[in-house]
């Protein structure tokens, strides 16, 4: 695990906190001296409904505590309640298992499976094209695969067919010349477009982070914020 943490922009966090109604808290302790208890109390004061996840069950802050994520999910499904945020108070090394469990319970498919399927389909198309000596290999479909979503290439390669030589020429168009918008607002919109509103946002508390957990969340289309106290972020964002 490296030291790089994953954070959402202030704009996205503001939108999440403004629209959220129900927050599930994994690792909420009934101990009034624990940070999780203070955070949960704050969220209740701000009008959020909380769902405690505590292995021993019982009741915390007047709310029924569920022994597991699955038990809480089933209860919410029966009541028709949607979970907007899952706030996690667990050790950093446990985060990949927790996030994987969330993805499994919510029935989320990994985008990596779709990417592999698309690559296999494209490979078959290329084989078919190469077998036909009179065909021109079409590489346009490769644009649909995002091999490095976090690192946009500095240049965009465009293929032009030379009508005289029938050879493919490559010309480079710089990002500044292209019409792609890489502004912060455009990137926020792009992130939100990939996020299914029915899926919860994963929020990992201050001092906790795990690169593998962040990767799992992204692959399953989940917004992910880590090493971040939801109480402090609320106070910071809405005090402006």
UniProtKB/TrEMBL annotation:
<dbReference type="InterPro" id="IPR003781">
    <property type="entry name" value="CoA-bd"/>
</dbReference>
<dbReference type="InterPro" id="IPR036291">
    <property type="entry name" value="NAD(P)-bd_dom_sf"/>
</dbReference>
<feature type="domain" description="CoA-binding">
    <location>
        <begin position="17"/>
        <end position="108"/>
    </location>
</feature>
<dbReference type="Pfam" id="PF13380">
    <property type="entry name" value="CoA_binding_2"/>
</dbReference>
<protein>
    <recommendedName>
        <fullName>CoA-binding domain-containing protein</fullName>
    </recommendedName>
</protein>
């Amino acid at each position: 695990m490296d030291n790089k943490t994953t954070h959402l922009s202030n704009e996205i966090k503001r939108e999440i906190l403004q629209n959220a109604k129900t927050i599930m808290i994994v690792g909420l302790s009934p101990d009034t001296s624990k940070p999780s208890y203070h955070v949960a109390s704050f969220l209740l004061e701000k009008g959020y409904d909380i769902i405690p996840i505590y292995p021993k069950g019982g009741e915390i802050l007047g709310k029924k505590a569920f022994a597991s994520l699955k038990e809480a999910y089933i209860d919410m499904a029966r009541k028709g309640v949607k979970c907007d945020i899952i706030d996690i108070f667990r050790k950093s090394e446990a985060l990949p298992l927790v996030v994987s469990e969330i993805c499994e319970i919510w029935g989320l498919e990994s985008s990596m499976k779709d990417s592999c399927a698309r690559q296999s389909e494209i490979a078959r198309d290329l084989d078919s094209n190469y077998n036909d000596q009179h065909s021109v290999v079409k590489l346009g479909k490769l644009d649909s695969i995002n091999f490095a979503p976090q690192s946009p290439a500095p240049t965009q390669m465009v293929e032009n067919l030379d009508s005289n030589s029938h050879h493919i020429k490559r010309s480079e168009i710089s990002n500044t010349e292209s019409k792609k918008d890489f502004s912060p607002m455009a990137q926020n919109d792009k992130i939100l477009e990939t996020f299914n509103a029915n899926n919860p946002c994963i929020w990992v508390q201050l001092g906790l982070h795990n690169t593998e957990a962040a990767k799992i969340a992204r692959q399953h289309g989940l917004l992910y914020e880590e090493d971040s106290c939801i109480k402090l972020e609320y106070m910071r964002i809405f005090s402006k």
